[in-house]
Amino acid sequence: MKILAINPGSTSTKIAVYENEKRLFVKTFYHSIETLSPFPTINSQYEFRKELILAELKKEDVLFLFDAVVGRGGLLKPIPSGVYEVNETMLKDLRNASMQHASNLGGLLAEDISRSIPGCKAYIADPVVVDELEDVARISGLPMLPRVSIFHALNHKAVGRKYARSINKNYEKMNLVIAHLGGGISVAAHRCGRVIDVNNALNGSGPFSPERAGTLSARALAELCFSGKYSLQEIDKMICGKGGVMAHLGTTDMPAVIKKINDGDANAELIVDAMIYTVAKEIGSMCVSLRGNVDAIILTGGIAYNSYCVDRLIGQIDFLAPIHIFPGEDEMEALAFNALEALQGNIVCKVYN
C-alpha cells in the first residue's frame, strides 16, 4: 500500500510518502511571511500549496501510485477519535470553517489529489476537534460558554498507542496523562482510549505556552476587550500567536530562550519556570480527572527535547506517576499509519455528518 500524507501548517506544508510502514521520503516546504502575504485568507493559499505538492510528486515520479491520500484534519464539528473518509459534508465544513487554520486545507488537498488517481481513498485522522469529553467536563460557569475540546489529538493518540505497544499493553486499557509541549500546549486525561478531559489548547485555557496565553483572568480580559485599544483580531492574536513566552520575551524560539537563561538572564528564567509551573498544575488536575489512577505521564512535543524544561517539569510532578518522554511529534507517521489501518480493514472508517 502506498500512502501520501499531507500536513499543512501555518508557515509550512509537509508531505511524506509511505509504502506500508516504510517511509520512502518526506519533504517540507517552508513559507515565509513574504510568500504568504499575497493571500488574504488560509483558503486562498489552496492552489499555491497544491501546486507545490504536485510538482514534488511529479519530480519523485510517484503521483499516480497512491492507494490513499491522508490529510491533517481541520477545525470541523466535534467528532470522536478515528479515521474519516473525506465526504461532501466534510469538504463543505472545511471550506466554511468558523476559524481560519492551515489544517483546514488537509482534507481538501487529500480529496483533490486522490480524485485523479483510480481507486485512491481520501482520509483525515484524529483532527484537533476530537471530542470525547465526559459531560461533567463540558460544564463551565456560564451556560453559553461550555468547555470545548481542541487539542493535539493526532499526536496524543499516536504517542499513547506507541507507549502502550512499547510495554506490550493495550492503549484502550490504560489510564494516561499526556502533555503535548509545543508552540501550543495541551494536557489530557486518557482513560481507556478516550480523552475524557483536556484544556482548549487553541482558544485560551490551561498552561501558557511559547505562543499562547492560556488561562487568563476573565474580568481583566473583558476590560481589555472593552478598552477601545484593540480590535477583536488583535485580542485573538494575544490569546493565540502572540501570547505566552512571545508576549513576555518577544520570541517563541525556546532554544534561544534557554541560551539566555544559561547566560544569566533572570527574567527569561522566571518566565520559562512560570510556564512549566502552569503545565505541572494542569498535569496534576488531569491526574485528579483520573482519580489518581494513572499508569503513566507522557511528555511529548518539541519542548520535550529541551532538558531544562523537562527536568524542571519532572521535578514538580514525579510524585504523581511514572514519567516517560517521547520528544517531538511524528504527525506524518501517525497520519500514514492510520490510513494504512483503514486500507487493511483493521479499523472501520467513521462517517462525518
TrEMBL record:
SUPFAM superfamilies linked: Actin-like ATPase domain
Major subcellular location class: cytoplasm
Coiled-coil residues: none
Keyword Transport: no
EC number: 2.7.2.7
Localization in the cell: Cytoplasm
Catalytic reaction equation(s): butanoate + ATP = butanoyl phosphate + ADP
Molecular function via GO: kinase activity
UniProt entry keywords in alphabetical sequence: ATP-binding, Cytoplasm, Kinase, Nucleotide-binding, Transferase
Gene3D superfamilies cross-referenced by the UniProt entry: 3.30.420.40
InterPro entries (UniProt xref): Aliphatic_acid_kin_short-chain, Aliphatic_acid_kinase_CS, ATPase_NBD, Butyrate_kin
PROSITE patterns according to UniProt: ACETATE_KINASE_1, ACETATE_KINASE_2
Family the entry assigns: Belongs to the acetokinase family.
Protein name in the entry: Probable butyrate kinase
